[in-house]
Please model this.
Amino acid sequence: MAPNRANKCWLCGRTSDEVNASVGRIPQETELDRRFARMTDLMGKFNRASGEWGNLVPDQFKTFDFDFVLGNQNQFKSMRFLTEVEDSKKSIVIPLKVAIGNVRSGVEGSIGGVKINPTDMVKKDVFLKEVGDFERRTGRNLNGSGGDGSKPNGFDGMRIGQGLAFMREVGMLYFSIQEKLLEVEKDDEMSKRPVFAVSIAKMDGLPGEIPVCTVCQNLVTCLVTV
Model:
């Protein structure tokens, strides 16, 4: 079915969607896309690496305590992947733990460069819900501050295989929260973006009321006032 001509600008012939597409992206959208891409790349790398860790533990070490092994890597040189685990702990687990403590205490938190201001209730609610759901599902606190005191904290009492599996879960939570928070930022930026629409208007020098897009309307207005 042919489109309704009234939905197209009388001057340029474009629909509202076509006008918005032609105007281009605002800088904030481009920056958010860059951050999304970087986060997705890091998540993919972590997902692939952590998926192999449990298969690389020699049988003779499988009953060892996770924290003990990670704290004494020089005694377990056959497990070369432990450096990756340690790096993940420093770059993912600890920053997430700090962010949880900050947000639960009512101060600004940050995860992967995404800030969570105590006055931003949307971000704060998203963050606390994801963390709370994770802690209830796993039966463990990610940060003792504000958590359920009846649950063990972090990796306490875990054997190495359990610890590696939990590290993987925490890492995927870390990236999942980032993704949701970036979506919140994107929605906020999109709500600020100017909307270019086709509407019926009376234009000086043009016959009667016509459908005209915001771009053409502004252009004609500028030409008439020059």
Remarks:
- The first helix runs from residue 16 to 23.
- Strands lie at 109-111, 114-116, 198-202, 209-213.
- The mean pLDDT is 87.
- The two ends are 41 Å apart (CA to CA).
